[in-house]
Specification:
The structure holds 2 protein chains of 2 kinds. Chain A is α+β, with helices and mostly antiparallel strands. Chain A has a 3-stranded mixed sheet with strand order 2-1-6, covered by helices on one side. In chain A, strands 4-3-5 form a 3-stranded antiparallel sheet, with no helix packed on it. In chain A, helix 2 links the parallel strand 1 and strand 2. Chain B is 36% helix and 22% strand. The chains are: A alpha+beta, B alpha/beta. The interface between A and B is medium-sized, with 32 and 28 residues.
């Protein structure tokens, strides 16, 4: 989706926390992104590196953890990780999404002040 | 020494606050809000025009477009309360602008508020506007392969509309593939076939919206 506005939202949120929590230099930002979230990692990394320029986050590294899609069949309880939403065991369409919709700032690594 | 601070915070946290506020208010008022998403030219505005002509549904529309208020004019002509948002270059609507637009609508007289999102199958699907549900609109000429190519929208929508079905005889639209892929992505979503020009299928679509609006009203505590 819109990687630049995502990068902007991440950086805005972190800059505010930087100030509120009086963090030292931010070294690394860990992001968890589900496979269904339409995020193109390379583009987001590039957008992030552009947005942090001349801010307190300058030089911070963005680490993206991609979370694969995981389904659970509501008929037979089987769990699977393929792209197809059809249960490979019983062929049912009736399932819930366990993982793959994440879009969160998981953690940051900051220098102790 | 470095320390790790665990946040586990949604990237869209700021805008999600606006979405939550909208959802809260709509729940208190019993107002159904539907986010209509589809490509440019897939027939979103025409669908809303035909929906407005159906009796027994008090509706308003928030229109999202890059430029012009042409869509808003079309709906205003039918007496539909409508607010146009021009995003300049923005490819989707966000909850903070929707909240502002809602201020100028007679919310307490409405059964349903439609948001016609910016024509786009990608970004609009990602942003929570505080709606009850999203509706994915695909016009037949776009091709049957689109649900799998844009899985996020078709997975997260509560209903799928196939529009311009009157053109099907002239297209090589693979209906079996469309039905199968849509079902794989979203087994629970009803699929409506609509030809807005003749009005075929509008009845079923409006019936679905009326039912959802009624359910919403019934849940006001």
């Amino acid at each position: 989706m819109h990687e630049l506005s995502l990068a902007d939202a991440i950086v805005s949120a972190l800059l505010k926390m930087c100030e509120d929590e009086a963090w030292g230099r931010v070294k690394k930002v860990r992001l968890r992104v589900g496979a269904l979230r339409q995020v193109f990692p390379e583009m987001l990394e590039f957008a992030f590196s552009t947005v942090v320029k001349d801010t307190a986050l300058s030089g911070a590294l963005l680490e993206i953890e991609e979370i694969p899609l995981e389904w659970r069949c509501l008929e037979c309880g089987n769990r699977w990780r393929e792209d197809s939403g059809v249960c490979p065991l019983c062929g049912s369409f009736n399932r819930e999404t366990l993982a793959g919709m994440e879009l969160e700032i998981h953690s940051v690594e900051v220098e102790e002040t | 020494m470095n320390k790790i601070v665990t946040l586990q915070q949604s990237v869209m946290a700021e805008d999600e606050k606006f979405a939550a506020a909208i959802r809260d208010r709509n729940t208190r008022m019993g107002l159904l809000m539907v986010n209509i998403i589809g490509s440019p030219g897939c027939g979103k505005t025409t669908l809303l025009e035909k929906t407005a002509l159906h009796a027994g549904l008090s509706m308003a529309v928030i229109e999202g477009d890059l430029a012009t208020d042409r869509d808003a004019e079309r709906l205003a002509r039918l007496g539909v309360p409508v607010v146009q948002i021009n995003t300049k270059g923005g490819c989707h609507l966000e909850a903070n602008v929707v909240e502002k637009a809602m201020e100028s609508l007679p919310l307490d007289t409405l059964d349903v508020l439609f948001i016609e999102n910016v024509g786009n199958l990608v970004c609009p699907a990602e942003f929570d506007l505080g709606e009850d549900f999203k509706v994915a609109v695909l016009s037949a000429p776009e091709g049957a392969d689109k649900p799998l190519k844009y899985p996020y929208l078709f997975t997260s929508a509560k209903a799928v509309l196939l529009t311009k079905t009157d053109l099907l005889p002239h297209l090589s639209f693979d209906m079996e593939m469309f039905a199968e892929d849509t079902r794989k992505l979203n087994p629970a979503a009803p699929v409506f076939h609509v030809d807005s020009l003749s009005g075929a299928g509008i009845e079923q679509w409006v019936g679905f919206i009326k039912l959802k609006a009624k359910e919403k009203k019934a849940n006001v505590r």
